[in-house]
UniProtKB/TrEMBL annotation, chain A:
Claim: Cell membrane is one of the keywords in the record: yes
GO cellular component: plasma membrane
Protein name: ABC transporter permease
One GO term of the biological process aspect: transmembrane transport
Renumbered residue ranges of the record's region Disordered: 1-20
Superkingdom assignment: Bacteria
Annotated ABC transmembrane type-1 domain residues: 85-290
Keywords: Cell membrane, Membrane, Transmembrane, Transmembrane helix, Transport
Family from the record: Belongs to the binding-protein-dependent transport system permease family. CysTW subfamily.
Compartments in which it is found: Cell membrane
The keyword Membrane appears for this protein: yes
From TrEMBL, chain B:
InterPro entries referenced in this protein's UniProt entry, alphabetically: Bact_Polyamine_Transport, MetI-like, MetI-like_sf
Protein name per the record: ABC transporter permease
Key words of the record: Cell membrane, Membrane, Transmembrane, Transmembrane helix, Transport
The organism of origin for this protein: Kribbella albertanoniae
TM ranges: 12-36, 74-94, 106-130, 136-161, 182-205, 239-257
TrEMBL record, chain C:
Pfam families, per the entry: ABC_tran, TOBE_2
Protein name, entry field: Spermidine/putrescine import ATP-binding protein PotA
GO cellular component assignments: ATP-binding cassette (ABC) transporter complex
Entry similarity comment: Belongs to the ABC transporter superfamily. Spermidine/putrescine importer (TC 3.A.1.11.1) family.
């Protein structure tokens, strides 16, 4: 049921059997409908997004936009939106770090310690995500609200000052992001931890004595594919999200997604498209680095 | 190490893991609780009293059930189309070697690795530039949903297919089944659980999508868009009823699966 | 109505690697034929080409007068018992066995399936899934699933490889019994020489994509054609020598100055350097200086270096003056005391028990690696 779990499970894919003559055509035929769909509604849109980012920024929906190859759009938008852009990447980085911190123990517990409860625990990781993303985020709004019990508890512990608040802070936005993308970290981590031969860890225990050393020398390196996949799958959607910033933050926590969405609704297509392209470019660079490391077969 | 130290070493990870699970369930508890809330004011951010009313009249807030029904229809259609196309692609990827295979892999992975805001805005750019800007709605949402579900279907079915022993198909052929019979008697039944999982995943992705949908919906309202809209004004507790119901359905699915698995393992 | 299976000039080339190399093979109708060879020598590939699951790069395959080289697998009167059985996990045992009959639209298949389950003693298991059976039972289902189609040739790819030793022995007899009963040609692939010897009428010994030798088990054991066969089928002592002449029906071989005789009919070479081969149980030990009659080959001045007692027999290692150690098996008949390490001994054997091989071959070919 989990794409992400499957995503990493798929990395064990053995090489496909050699083709029988005359079956190459079948392969292309099978790929055709889906490939065409992706071409028409993923690649072509990206191209038209790229085109839109070079339109004359002075156009409007009513008058139409003209293609003026305005590369200046990128410089202009970066000047205007550098802060939310940087903030998005920073929040995504924080989110990824927290997801790793929370997700690793959970994935480890499921893979190594859960025994016969393994499947159930795994299912429980996924189950909350059947409740709508927005509803869950709204209930964080409630949990973190000024008269909610989380704030009360933190005040009682003197972690939060008497008029301290959680809602409408960076902490709230990152908490929401971390919450929403945690399964995308846990599932690939679990998949790679699960694959580790338990005997290697026991052997590690024999050789290096300390459990921490064993973890550092054996377990962590072997789970690296999961860490990399999880990091990508957390970082990318987090960087583009605006729902958490909108519902749990204030304009001060505005992310790049908020601006893209707002600019598109306002009809400022060239600017919005330029921002979108910039975000996509940053992501593509990340993915390419990953591909160079791991090859394409591990991706899907 | 002392015994206490060892005990902590043995169970610390499990305790940490359970705490993280609690974190995952915290908002769900709130959702369930709020589905029984009888709000005093218009903004239902506090629990004011218990009632069954919300569960008795889930369609009371104007437009809520229309939105749910729109989401269900889009979800079902997108699931059928994406599952069919994605399954074909998965077969091509696992069972065939062809020129451009590794590029195709990347091509399928990219939509999953693109932020939703980019996917949504680029589709909008396409629709607008090709003159469909005024006709955004049900069909444009459907197109978008099939697009982002496709990759997940391919990945899910591919994993199942790759884990299948190709000797089973060879055995079928050895036993007088031609290509067609081999596919329907052996390959398909064995891959079916993977296809089912892909369909379920597609449905939940489609039903839950907001960012892409919001950009390409025109005046059509899906369930997540309804929630978003009401979050700006008042939040009818019925939204939590729907959320809880979906969670319970998923939970029943999971538990039923676990029970049958255990029962089968025992016999 | 079964007919001979004939492979002519069959080769299989995988990317940059030749798995089967110009193979010629005739499997007589109704025989129990074993394809024996170490792992990776091309046995499975050969079998898969016969089944139609792999296309030969060159060569033809015929069944009687019909050429089947390019036929799709489901068009061949040939069935396979796969290496790991490949039972359909989503079908119960009955449906697994019925699969072939149903595909061929055989009416009234039910009694046939029952009968076949009877033959493999699994009548009560029809409703179970493959995952609920033991390895031995799964093996029998795989056999039943193939046999029920009454193929002209049944291919078995290491069918007993996954079973433990005791079950393997039992199934060997069982398979042999069934083959005699149904009279179908069996082509049985194995890397276990003992298995091939107990079961097969004819064995083809394969190595590196080639057939090294083909014959009955007794022929192969008695007179191996290559050092590989000599070592892979049982054990052999191979001693370096040179042909220096002939006497009557024998060749005279010089071994470190000692002359020994080998019947011409048992020689693969007629001059030059040779390997003189003798099976360990054909060599006798005698206390040093014991007189032997004429017509017996002798090597003198050996010392026993190792004695291992294995119950039914004793295994000796005897070191010859030039350092080579020979293996000698002796039945523990109780007729005389066993030797002890350090004893000085002479070795002797009858010329008809030895054989000569080409010295250009590797004396260690086919020796099982003992780590
Ligand atoms: N599909 C294949 N692609 C490439 N090489 C193969 C393939 N199948 C078998 N081989 C190679 O051919 C050789 C013979 O394999 P096989 O027939 O399976 O040997 P055996 O059954 O005797 O152990 C091996 O070296 C193996 O690696
Ligand atoms: Mg093999």
């Amino acid at each position: 049921m989990s794409a992400v779990g499957q995503l990493s499970a798929a990395s064990q894919t053995p090489a496909p059997p050699p083709p029988r003559s005359g079956r190459r055509l079948t392969a292309y035929l099978l790929l055709l409908p889906g490939g065409l769909w992706l071409l028409l509604f993923f690649v072509v849109p990206l191209v038209s997004l790229l085109a839109a980012s070079l339109y004359d920024p002075n156009g409007s929906i009513e008058d139409g936009f003209s293609m003026t190859w305005s590369f200046g759009n990128f410089a202009d938008t970066m000047a205007d939106y550098a802060r939310p852009f940087g903030r998005s990447l920073w929040y995504a980085l924080l989110t990824t770090a927290f997801c790793l911190l929370l997700g690793y123990p959970l994935a480890y517990a499921i893979a190594m310690k859960a025994g016969r409860w393994k499947n159930l625990m795994l299912a429980l990781v996924i189950a909350p995500f059947f409740t709508s993303f927005l509803i869950r985020t709204l209930s964080w709004k409630l949990l973190l609200s000024d008269n909610g019990f989380v704030v009360d508890a933190l005040k009682w512990l003197h972690i939060l000052g008497p008029d301290g608040r959680l809602l409408a802070t960076t902490a709230a936005v990152v908490t929401g992001l971390t919450y929403n993308f945690l399964p995308f970290m846990v599932l690939p981590l679990y998949a790679s931890l699960e694959k580790i031969d338990r005997r290697l860890i026991e052997a590690g225990g024999d050789l290096f004595a300390g459990p921490l050393t064993t973890f550092r020398v054996v377990t962590l390196p072997l789970s690296m594919p999961g860490v990399v996949a999880g990091t990508l799958l957390t970082f990318i959607p987090a960087a583009g999200d605006y729902i958490n910033a909108q519902l749990l933050g204030t304009p001060k926590q505005r992310m790049i997604g908020n601006d893209i969405q707002r600019l598109f609704s306002a009809g400022a297509y060239p600017t919005a498209a330029a921002l979108s392209v910039t975000l996509m470019a940053a992501i593509v660079v990340l993915v390419l680095i990953y591909v160079r490391r791991a090859g394409t077969d591990d991706l899907v | 190490m002392t015994r206490v130290g060892r005990f902590i070493g043995q169970h610390l990870i499990m305790v940490l893991g359970l705490i993280v699970l609690l974190y995952l369930f915290a908002p769900i508890v709130v959702v369930i609780l709020m589905s029984f809330n009888q709000p005093k004011g218009r903004l239902s951010y506090t629990f004011d009293g218990f009632t069954w009313d919300n569960w008795a009249n889930p369609c009371q807030p104007y437009g809520l059930c229309d939105a749910v029904s729109t989401s269900l229809r889009i979800g079902l259609l997108a699931t059928v189309v994406a599952t069919a196309l994605g399954t074909l692609m998965a077969f091509a990827m696992v069972r065939h070697r062809f020129r451009g295979r590794s590029a195709t892999n990347l091509f399928i992975f990219l939509p999953m690795a693109s932020p939703e805001i980019v996917l949504g805005s680029s589709l909008l750019a396409l629709f607008v530039s090709s003159g469909f800007g005024g006709r955004l709605g049900f069909w444009t949402i459907l197109i978008a949903h099939v697009m982002f579900c496709l990759s997940f279907v391919v990945v899910t079915v591919k994993a199942r297919l790759a884990g299948m022993d190709s000797r089973l198909e060879q055995a079928a052929m050895d036993l007088y089944a031609n290509e067609w019979q081999t596919f329907w008697r052996v390959t398909f039944p064995l891959v079916f659980p993977g296809i089912m999982a892909a369909a379920l995943l597609s449905f939940s992705l489609s039903f839950d999508d907001f960012i892409i949908t919001n950009l390409n919906a025109g005046t059509t309202v899906t369930f997540p868009m309804y929630v978003w809209g009401s979050a700006q004004r008042d939040i009818p507790p019925q939204i939590n009823v729907i959320g809880t119901a979906m969670f319970l359905l998923a939970l029943i699915f999971v538990l039923a699966g676990e029970v049958t698995r255990r029962r089968r393992a025992r016999s | 109505m079964t007919s001979d299976l004939v492979l002519e000039g069959i080769s299989k080339q995988f990317a940059g690697h030749r798995a089967v190399d110009n193979l010629d093979l005739t499997v007589p109708a109704g025989s129990f034929f074993a394809l024996l060879g170490p792992s990776g020598c091309g046995k499975t590939t050969t079998l898969r080409m016969i089944a139609g699951l792999e296309e030969p790069t060159t060569g033809t395959i015929r069944l009687g007068d019909d050429e089947i080289t390019g036929l799709r697998p489901y068009k061949r009167p040939v069935n396979t018992v796969f290496q790991n059985y490949a039972l359909f996990p989503h079908l119960d045992i009955f449906e697994n066995v019925a699969f072939g009959l149903k595909r061929r639209k055989v009416k009234d298949y039910k009694p046939k399936v029952e009968e076949m389950l009877d033959l493999v003693e699994l009548n009560d298991y029809g409703k179970r899934r493959p995952g609920q059976l033991s390895g031995g039972q799964q093996q029998r289902v795989a056999l039943a699933r193939a046999l029920i189609n009454r193929p002209q040739v049944l291919l078995l790819d290491e069918p007993l490889g996954a079973l433990d030793l005791k079950l393997r022995r039992q199934m060997q007899l069982e398979l042999k019994r069934i083959q005699t009963e149904v009279g179908i040609t069996f082509v049985h692939v194995t890397h276990d020489q003992e298995e091939a010897m107990t079961m097969a009428d004819t064995i083809a010994v394969m190595n590196g994509g080639l057939i090294e030798q083909l014959g009955s088990p007794a022929e192969l054991y008695d007179l191996p054609a290559t050092t590989f066969v000599a070592n892979f089928l049982g054990q052999s002592n191979l001693i370096r020598g040179a042909i220096i002449g002939q006497a009557d029906e024998n060749l005279i071989v010089d071994v470190q100055g000692r002359k020994v005789l080998v019947p011409k009919a048992r020689c693969r070479v007629t001059e030059g350097e040779v390997w003189l081969g003798i099976r360990p149980e054909k060599v006798f030990l005698a206390p040093a200086g014991t007189e032997e009659g004429d017509g017996v080959n002798q090597l003198l001045g050996a010392v026993v270096t190792d004695v291992s007692y294995v119950g039914v027999s004793t295994q000796y290692l005897a070191k010859l003056p030039w350092g080579q150690e020979l293996t000698v098996f002796e039945q523990n008949t109780g007729a005389r005391d066993t030797f002890r390490a350090g004893d000085a001994v002479d070795l002797h054997w009858r010329p008809a028990h030895s054989f000569l091989l080409d010295a250009a071959q590797d004396a260690l070919a086919g020796v099982e690696d003992v780590e």
